[in-house]
Amino acid sequence: MKFYIDTSDVEEIKAALDLGIISGVTTNPSIIARSWNSFEDAVSAIDAVVNEEMEVFAEVLSTSCEDMVKEGKKIASLRKNMVVKLPMTMEAIKAIGILSQCGIKTCATICFHPVQALLASVAKANYVAPYLSRIDDIGYDGMKTVKEIHDICRRYDLRTEILCASIRSPKQMIELAKEGIEAVTLAPSFLRSLMTSPSTEQMIVKFQEDWENAVRTAVPSV
Ligand code: E4P
Q1: Is 0.90 surpassed by the pTM of this model?
Q2: Pick from 190, 57, 171, 184: which is nearest to 131 by CA?
Q3: Which top-rank group of organisms is this from (predicted)?
Q4: Tell me: the pLDDT tens digits for 136-153?
Q5: pLDDT in tens, 168-186
Q6: In whole angstroms, what is the distance from residue 159 CA to residue 80 CA?
Q7: Ligand 1, atom 7: nearest CA belongs to which residue?
Q8: Which CATH superfamily is domain 2-196 in?
Q9: Does residue 147 carry a catalytic annotation?
Q10: Closest residue CA from atom 10 of ligand 1
């Protein structure tokens, strides 16, 4: 499973990269708007801290195919290994096909239904991003949707990878891993929360206390 960090905060990105398990950085317009005034500034700051082989994802704001293609080309030119995110619409399907023919990597994002993902895969999107918990939020079964997308892509041998977004619990992570989902993008705080547990912390304290007690009570050697 590939892990991406979902932020444009450079300090958070550096901290995540230090773990040595991150394949790249994903953003969306809301994430970029929290810290930056332009996509260019955000991507340039991210580019300065990531390895040039790492993928950086940025999303178009345009809604027509023509404008999505123009904006997608501009995003792709910002650095090597950009992935252009396109919100899943009919216009996006057309734009994904065109960008793909130009050799530009794409991600069909905000996917809420397996059929959207199927169409994006046939259009040759490199990634499709289902919003797992947001599917639950509207009363459907997010995990079932992600698994259906995975089954469909495997059945037709489609090369599109699933980049699962909107993951909020360790239980969801385990289900996704058991399913063999190719990639996940995680908020920095959620990634941090996955790395430990209160029981682990308790045991660390116990080991340290036991060691210190043993050292204090040991008979000093002459
Ligand atoms: C992806 O682009 C989104 O930033 C993210 O996965 C949404 O997660 P949330 O539904 O927990 O806010």
Answers
A1: yes
A2: 184
A3: Bacteria
A4: 999 999 999 999 999 999
A5: 999 999 999 999 999 999 9
A6: 21
A7: 166
A8: Aldolase class I (3.20.20.70)
A9: no
A10: 166
